[in-house]
Amino acid sequence: MAMRESERRREYEVVSLHEIKGRAPKIFGIPSGVEGLDSLFFTVEIRNGEVKKIPLGGYPYLSVMNLTGIADTGKSLMAEQFAVKQASLGYRVCFVTVETPKEFIVQSLRYRASAMGISIENIDKNIFIIDCATNQGLRENLNDLLDTLAYAIREYGIKSVVIDSVTGLYEAKEVMARVIVRKVYNFMKKWRQTCLMVSQKRSSSEELTAEAAGGYGVAHIVDGTIVLYKKLIQSKFDVSTYGLPLGSIIRLMRIDGCRMTGHDTRTFIFEITDTGLVRIMAPLNEYIKRVGGKLR
Fold first, then answer.
1. Structural domain boundaries of the chain?
2. How does DSSP assign 142-211, residue by residue?
3. Alpha-carbon distance 79 to 67, whole Å?
4. Contact criterion met (CB below 8 Å) for 239 and 250
5. How far apart are alpha carbons 154 and 147 in whole angstroms?
């Protein structure tokens, strides 16, 4: 009897591609709300022996993406733009705020909507907030947080989740980072959510890679990572390369990897507009050519 139960367990755990192929999700884009970003993800088709890239139109559906960088690089802005964009399209989003109390997140989201030309009425009923910033129990007990999130998904028909930031869920216990992120990742897959997780890099070392991004090896768990970086113009070389005066800031973005679809691997210049929106501008090499700088 015990042997038969053991065999049944093994039968459940070992499945063929044929058995599960019908459960594989379709690949399509979920609009990010960030100008210039959606076309950087793509699928590939072989037509008459030639490879053709087809723009995806956003983050891969049901992906768990990690937005990382040092402080003040636009991570939270990108997360808020995504939430507002999805809400404006009629999809319900759960915003898990770990750093900022809910009243201030509401203010920020409403401002982001105004800057994007989206009416407040269009998003008010489609964004739901879980406040871990003021609720220590949710912040420090991951199981309680995930149970609350599961309730929100069931009761309100949530389609996407934003966590800002996942780093706040393992403060003072960074050795647990991978365990915590893996639980969150598996939860999102189980509940079929497209998810953006903001994480804080510990330092600017390896600035345009996922190294030091939200703990040890966190980037290896998620489906993709977008790294944001800001560089201070502080030498004559920087001035000639970037065409900006001393003391200026230039912002750089790179998709460090995405296992679900193809993606542009180049480094891009981006800006934070006067209205507080992230906007992808141009590949770094094209920008440098345009301003007349020279790489050495």
1. 26-291
2. HHHHHHHHHHHHHHH-EEEEEEETGGGGGTT-GGGHHHHHHHHHHHHHHTT-EEEEEEEBS-STTTTSST
3. 8
4. no
5. 11
How many angstroms separate the CA atoms of 287 and 296, rounded?
A: 15
Listed residue (64, 59, 40) closest to 270, CA to CA: 40
Under 8 Å CB-to-CB from 258, ≥6 apart: which residues? 41, 60, 63, 65, 223, 224, 225
What is the token pair recorded at 208? 């345009």
Q: Is 224 helix (H, G, I), strand (E, B) or coil?
A: strand
For residue 114 the two structure tokens come to 């105004």
Cα pseudo-dihedral 212, 216, 222, 227, rounded to 10: 0
* Of 114, 153, 137, 41, nearest in space to 276 by CA: 114
Collapsing DSSP states into helix, strand and coil, what is residue 117?
A: coil
Provide the whole-model pTM.
Answer: 0.90
Residue 89 CA, chain-centre distance (Å), reads: 19
Indicate the length of the chain as a whole number.
296
Burial class (CB in 10 A: 0-12, 13-18, 19+), 145: buried
Domain 26-291 has CATH 3.30.470.20: no
pLDDT, one tens digit for every residue, the chain (296 residues): 555 666 665 666 788 888 887 888 889 999 999 999 999 999 998 888 888 999 999 999 999 999 999 889 999 999 999 999 999 999 999 999 999 999 999 999 999 999 999 998 889 999 999 999 999 999 999 999 999 999 999 999 999 999 999 999 998 787 888 899 999 999 999 999 999 999 987 665 556 565 554 545 678 899 999 999 999 999 999 998 898 999 999 999 999 999 999 999 999 999 999 999 999 999 999 998 887 644 43
Q: Which of 72, 68, 85 is nearest to 209 (CA)?
A: 68
